[in-house]
């Protein structure tokens, strides 16, 4: 009965439009009250969930992304991408994909990527004769790569949701090839849709412009080297790499680019504080929810349920993908990771999947959720920027959605796509 109260209250809360964090919290508190447990457990579990040293990395990574967004790196990245691939058929579509991928490696946030790149690229593409639905789909799907690249704070959340058994260096290495695969898939889809719709190619600006624009963007993109290189080489811990990245971003945007005003600095700081507060509150409450799930043996029940359908590993992995997709429709990324990982990780490990590979699969499923209504944060943000109705965008979403699903299934069924680089360098 207690498990029924926990799950039913959670689902009803989501269905009536209650914020995820409150739905999780309310269902947990009602279950604890039903069991007659002391309410002190609520605060003990929340404090234990948030009192983790590795969580220092989260505000640093978020603040780094905000500083780079407000500090003018977006314009330099767009100029570099346009000079490099803008002369290809559907050149601004190619530019958008490359620019979103580059910015994703700086911000680590798909939502920030859509906000920064979309605000610049979508109006430009519409002005040059591209359809608004194409511009929005290219932007929203290209932005998802940011979840697989540092400084993605969702990697840290997964690491801790997995019980600390998966390190940040492992996730960084495992995410590199999937990020490349997803980028290539987006480029191919953007190109073929552009050809089918008859979009023209731009003019090649010359190698001199390519060199100049690359040099202008390189200092901002170097932040990926600081974080990735510092963590993988062992020079920094993840938290130290985040702190160094913040310092570098401040120095670059204030003294290098001279593009970060005091007003924008305050906006970046305020937004980073708000996002960090939301994430940590969600972590604390989800820890309590996870404790109850563990207490009632939900992971074991889920494993037994899947085993009744099939014991073939690849079938189980596909079913896990479908479960993750279903939850991703209703939950944002952090909640998705924190709720699903403790339940599904033991199942996939039992059938032979690495926790590292599963981390990338979880992140990709979260990405699908970001672009799928009713939650679909990046999807709705892109529609708002493009000033276009949701219905018109959905009609042309399928090539991009199929590319994302295809990438997910390849990474699910071919472990080497995520584990080859990891196994070679670890």
Quick one: biggest sheet? none
Mean pLDDT: 86
Rg from Cα: 21 Å
Low-confidence stretches: none
Q: How many beta strands in the DSSP annotation?
A: 0
- Number of domains in the coordinates? 1
Protein structure class? mainly alpha
Order of helices and strands: HHHHHHHHHHHHHHHHHHHHH
Count, helices: 21
Label this structure with key terms:
single chain, 426 residues, mainly alpha, globular
Report on this structure:
The chain has 426 residues and is an all-alpha fold. It has one domain. Helix content is 80%, strand content 0%. The protein contains 21 helices and no strands. The chain has helices spanning 2-15, 20-35, 40-50, 57-70, 73-85, 91-107, 110-127, 132-143, 153-161, 168-197, 207-233, 238-256, 262-295, 298-309, 313-330, 333-350, 355-370, 377-386, 390-395, 398-413, 416-425. α9 crosses α16 (333-350) and α17 (355-370) packs antiparallel against α20. The longest helix is centred in the middle third of the chain and has 34 residues, at 262-295. The mean pLDDT is 86.
Short description:
The chain has 21 helices and no strands.
Question: Layout of helices and strands, plus pairs?
Answer:
Layout (H helix, E strand, L loop, with lengths): L1 H14 L4 H16 L4 H11 L6 H14 L2 H13 L5 H17 L2 H18 L4 H12 L9 H9 L6 H30 L9 H27 L4 H19 L5 H34 L2 H12 L3 H18 L2 H18 L4 H16 L6 H10 L3 H6 L2 H16 L2 H10 L1
């Amino acid at each position: 009965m207690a498990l029924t109260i926990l799950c039913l209250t959670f689902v009803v809360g989501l269905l009536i439009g209650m914020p995820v964090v409150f739905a999780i919290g309310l269902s947990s508190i009602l279950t604890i009250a039903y069991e007659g447990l002391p309410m002190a457990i609520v605060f003990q579990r929340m404090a234990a969930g948030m009192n983790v040293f590795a969580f220092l990395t989260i505000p640093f990574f978020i603040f780094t992304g905000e500083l780079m967004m407000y500090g003018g790196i977006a314009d330099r990245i767009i100029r570099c991408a346009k000079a490099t691939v803008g002369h290809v058929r559907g050149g601004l579509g190619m530019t958008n994909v490359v620019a979103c991928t580059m910015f994703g490696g700086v911000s680590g946030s798909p939502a920030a990527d859509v906000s920064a790149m979309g605000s610049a690229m979508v109006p430009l593409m519409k002005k040059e004769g591209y359809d608004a639905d194409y511009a929005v789909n290219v932007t929203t799907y290209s932005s998802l790569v940011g979840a697989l690249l540092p400084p993605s704070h969702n990697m840290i959340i997964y690491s801790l949701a997995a019980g600390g058994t998966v390190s940040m260096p492992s996730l960084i290495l495992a995410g590199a090839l999937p990020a490349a695969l997803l980028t290539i898939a987006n480029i191919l889809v953007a190109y073929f849709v552009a050809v089918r719709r008859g979009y023209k190619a731009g003019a090649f600006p010359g190698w001199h412009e390519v060199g100049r624009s690359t040099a202008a963007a390189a200092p901002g993109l170097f932040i990926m080297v600081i974080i990735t290189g510092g963590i993988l080489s062992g020079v920094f811990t993840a938290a130290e790499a985040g702190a160094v990245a913040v310092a570098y971003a401040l120095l670059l945007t204030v003294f290098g680019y001279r593009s970060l005003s005091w007003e924008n600095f305050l906006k970046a700081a305020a937004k980073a504080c708000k996002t960090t507060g939301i994430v940590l509150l969600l972590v604390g409450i989800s820890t309590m929810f996870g404790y109850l799930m563990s207490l009632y043996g939900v992971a074991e029940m889920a494993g037994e349920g899947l085993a009744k359908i099939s014991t073939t590993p690849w079938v189980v992995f596909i079913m896990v993908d479908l479960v993750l997709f279903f939850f991703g429709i209703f939950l944002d990324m952090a909640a998705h990771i924190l709720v699903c990982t403790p339940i599904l990780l033991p199942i996939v490990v039992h059938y032979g999947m690495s926790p590292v590979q599963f981390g990338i699969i979880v992140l990709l499923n979260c990405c699908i959720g970001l672009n799928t209504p009713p939650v679909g944060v990046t999807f709705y943000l892109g529609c708002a920027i493009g000033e276009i109705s949701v219905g018109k965008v959905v009609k042309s979403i399928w090539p991009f959605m199929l590319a994302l699903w295809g990438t997910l299934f390849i990474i699910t069924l071919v472990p080497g796509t995520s584990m080859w680089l990891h196994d070679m360098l670890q």
